[in-house]
Design brief:
Elements lengths: L1 H22 L12 E3 L17 E3 L13 H4 L16 H12 L8 E4 L4 E5 L8 E6 L3 E7 L3 E6 L2 E6 L3 E3 H11 L1 E6 L3 E5 L8 E6 L3 E8 L2 E6 L2 E6 L3 E6 L4 E2 L11 H11 L11 E2 L3 E2 L1 H10 L9 H4 L4 E3 L9 E6 L2 E10 L2 E7 L3 E6 L5 E6 L4
Antiparallel strand pairs: 1-2, 3-6, 3-9, 4-5, 5-17, 6-7, 7-8, 10-13, 10-16, 11-12, 13-14, 14-15, 18-19, 20-25, 21-22, 21-25, 22-23, 23-24
């Protein structure tokens, strides 16, 4: 009887081993305890590789991704662990790519949030509907979620900290996936005065100069040159003098904007009114502050509310009022930019070295530094 029992047990073990061999036939790594996955195999030709110092996922967490970084298990829809790895259809390459995606998923944020609105998400000083407005989080912009309850999220983004309605904020895995779609490639200027050229060669016309630290939206990298967007024009900069990286948009301040002394209420009101439309679309030939405007259409429509009638295009607007030095500009004055010596862009100066303008189809209405490109002319049309 003991011999029969022993033979039966051996038979069960053999059958079990055969079943395991068949189920694990997919090209996976060695079977490991739940939540552990080694990624140290030699990659096949043409496959992406993983750094030697980042080749292990343990306990379903990523060592370098922050305490709330997306896990490889989340990326692979929960298919890591002893209960599922035997029948998984994922290949070793799938796991390697999942690891890389998980490691970089947060774009530098510990608890990433993304504004899920059609225009702008109000940021308030306190978590209440009547809280003082301290900033705006434009559509698809990112933030650090500091704390949350059922109604409000305490966030930080750019230079703004405050509270937003949780209803309009993507968090967790949804925010991370959205960030992958939204990240914009930018070229950060690393020299004191970067020459922006019409074509990708040193003999080409210098359109403008961009100071150190400014970020230009990248259209393409072409060898030693980077094609960037300067408002709605495609131009070129030397790759030697920029750092290219992927970035997410952030919030813009409102209450902390400095106007200085002696600034009239109407100038302040015009600037605050213009900022209500941050994030709204750029539409060539448009004049609608909500549905879309180009640079001159935006300026014309803002000033129309205050009884100031301006021409339709930027070159004509530059002929209005009184020409002043850019250094003398006050909030509410107009700043003009040119391609060569031909004016092709206009913005409203809002103080603190910043302008607001309808920039491009990609960015819409936004705030920039006044020197994001070389100012060509400043005009005063308000006499107060």
């Amino acid at each position: 009887m003991k011999k029969r029992g022993m033979a039966f047990a051996i038979t069960i073990v053999i059958l079990t081993n055969q079943t395991l061999t068949v189920c694990a036939a997919a090209p996976l790594l060695d079977l490991m305890p739940a939540g552990q996955l080694r990624l140290d195999r030699e990659p096949e030709q043409g496959e992406e590789t993983v750094s030697e110092n980042n080749t292990e996922v343990s306990g379903n967490s990523i060592g370098s991704g922050g305490e709330n970084a997306e896990t490889a298990q989340e990326v692979l829809n929960g298919s890591i662990g002893s209960g599922t790895i035997l029948v998984s259809e994922k290949t070793a390459k799938d796991y390697e790519l999942a690891y890389e995606r998980a490691k970089n998923a947060n774009w530098g944020y510990t608890n990433l949030g993304i504004a899920d609105v059609s225009d702008n998400l109000n940021i308030r000083a306190i978590g209440a509907e009547d809280g003082r407005l301290v900033g705006k989080l434009p559509k698809d912009a990112a933030c650090e979620v500091l704390d949350m309850d059922d109604t409000w999220a305490h966030i930080s983004s750019g230079n703004v900290e405050g509270y937003v309605s949780r209803e309009y904020l993507l968090t967790g895995l949804s925010a991370k996936h959205k960030a992958e779609e939204l990240a914009t490639t930018v070229a950060k200027v690393t020299t004191d005065s970067l020459k922006v050229r019409a074509e990708a060669n040193t003999d080409s016309e210098v359109i403008t100069l961009v100071p150190r630290g400014e970020e230009l939206e990248v259209s393409a990298v072409e060898g030693d040159w980077v094609k960037v967007l300067l408002d709605d024009d495609e131009v070129f900069v030397s790759a030697e003098y920029v750092e290219v990286s992927a970035e997410l948009g952030t919030a813009v301040t409102m209450s902390e904007l400095l106007y200085g002394q002696g600034i009239s209420d109407v100038r302040v009101d015009i600037c605050q009114y213009a900022k209500e439309f941050i994030g709204n679309p750029y539409v060539w030939g448009g004049t609608s502050l909500t549905k879309g405007a180009d640079c001159s259409g935006f300026v014309m429509s803002v000033f129309k509310k205050y009884g100031v009638k301006l021409p339709r295009n930027s070159r004509a607007q530059a002929g209005c009022g009184t020409t002043i030095k850019v250094s003398e500009a006050k909030p509410g004055d107009l700043i003009f930019y040119a391609k060569g010596k031909t004016i092709n862009h206009v913005a409203i100066y809002i103080g603190n070295g910043q302008v607001i303008h309808a920039s491009s189809p990609k960015t819409g209405i936004k705030i920039s530094n006044v020197s994001y490109r070389s100012p060509f002319k400043a005009v005063r049309i308000l006499y107060d």
